[in-house]
Automatic annotation (TrEMBL):
Bilayer-spanning residue ranges: 6-26
Lineage, top ranks: Bacteria, Pseudomonadati, Pseudomonadota, Gammaproteobacteria, Pseudomonadales
Keyword set, alphabetical order: Membrane, Transmembrane, Transmembrane helix
Gene designation per UniProt: ccoS
Family annotation (NCBIfam families): ccoS
Signal peptide positions (record): none
Region (Disordered): 37-76
Protein's name in the database: Cbb3-type cytochrome oxidase assembly protein CcoS
Coiled-coil residue windows: none
Composition-biased stretches (Basic and acidic residues): 66-76
Domain of life assignment: Bacteria
Length: 76
């Protein structure tokens, strides 16, 4: 029974710390974008169309897409 006087406050302290860490992670943006890291491994960083799409998503003008448009496709 005397162990409960130590274990219950210790458990409450651990729960309070876990809740604080969770809210800190949410406020600092750790959970803002969960999909991009999973998809980024599938795309080549050197691909001009992918680079243009990433720049366009960020709101920047896409210079690499303009370069890709000027290239002529290979003829079969």
């Amino acid at each position: 029974m005397p162990a409960l006087y130590i274990m219950i406050p210790a458990a409450l302290l651990i729960v309070a710390i876990a809740i604080y860490i969770f809210f800190w992670a949410v406020d600092s943006g750790q959970y803002d974008d969960l999909d991009s890291p999973a998809h980024s491994i599938l795309f080549d960083d050197q691909d001009p169309q992918h680079t243009a799409a990433v720049e366009e998503a960020k709101g920047q003008p896409s210079a690499s897409l303009k370069e890709a448009d000027h290239k002529t496709p290979p003829h079969a």
